[in-house]
Amino acid sequence: MADPYSKPGLTLVSTPIGNLGDISLRAIEALRSADKILCEDTRVSKRLLEKHGIVSRLSNYHEHNAKLVRPKIIDGLKAGAKIVLISDAGTPSISDPGYQLVKACIKNDLKISTVPGPTALIAALTISGLPTDSFYFGGFLPNKRNARRKKLLEQKELETTLIFYDSAKRLLNSLKDANYCLGERSAAIARELTKIHEDVQRGNILELIEYYERNGPPKGEVVVVIGPPTKKPNVDQKELKLMLQELLSNNSLRDSVKLATDKLGVSRSIVYEQALNINKE
Ligand code: SAM
């Protein structure tokens, strides 16, 4: 069966996110048969092509020249060229240039196909240990605090796993903002995926803050994965009151609150408030 990329048109080809071995047979075939390969940084892509013995014409397509070169690319496609778009890593158009080119191809009724493959967000999600059935991908977290908090707060009510790209040096601040905006949640930091120093730190957000405060900011590339809000079980106030009355007759307020919180698995503040009321009575 003839593959779509063997015909004229634009093909989006996913490339490795670190380990150069993570490239599919179809990706190699598409790169080999392209008249032109559009990439962000020719030095990065050259390494990949050389590793797989591919000799092809590389041409720059990045956020700074995209607007300028897009009409020429469209002209080339109209003339019947087979053009491949790759990015420095992973799937083009995922937090990478590509979207506007795809839009322009659709507008000009030009053929587009895909050779899917690695993308950091899915790699991170699948090894995070957090729910995968439903998730939200928020792209890069903004580097300014106010904008970052706004973005996090906007997703607060979502009952899904949240995934963000971030820079390693900003990670600690992002985690602090996540804790401030989203409260206590499970999370995972996936770092340097598929590379020699691949590492995943899992825990609740506060534990991760402590970890990076102790060990210093991580090095390399990171994906932040944050679990959905934990559903607090409804509190049966009558049951809580009876339990606390009994506990308070033999224990301190602090111990009673802890014992009841652990036993019922409900929020400590609700238990504490009820304990104070009983003490007042
Ligand atoms: N197009 C890429 C993709 O499909 O994942 C994303 C490119 S975006 C410009 C780069 C960001 O992706 C990094 O800042 C980091 O958050 C994430 N990333 C890329 N490669 C990674 C890796 N090997 N390990 C962890 N995160 C990675």
Q: Major sheet: size, sense and barrel closure?
A: 5 strands, parallel
Query: Helix/strand-derived class?
Result: alpha/beta
Strand/helix succession = EHEHEHEHEHEHEHEEHEHHH
Low-confidence stretches: none
Write the CATH fold name of the largest domain.
Cobalt-precorrin-4 Transmethylase, domain 1
In terms of quaternary structure, the protein is single chain
Mean pLDDT: 94
CATH architecture of the largest domain: 3-Layer(aba) Sandwich
Helix content: 40-55%
Shape: elongated
Number of strands: 10
Any idea what the radius of gyration is? 26 Å
Q: Separation of termini?
A: 81 Å
Question: Which band does the percent of strand residues land in?
Answer: 15-25%
Tell me the name of the CATH class of the largest domain: Alpha Beta
Strand order of the largest sheet: 3-2-4-1-5
Q: So, the CATH homologous superfamily of the largest domain?
A: Tetrapyrrole methylase, N-terminal domain
Compute the number of helices. Answer: 11
Number of domains: 3
Which cofactors or ions or other ligands sit in this model?
Answer: S-adenosylmethionine
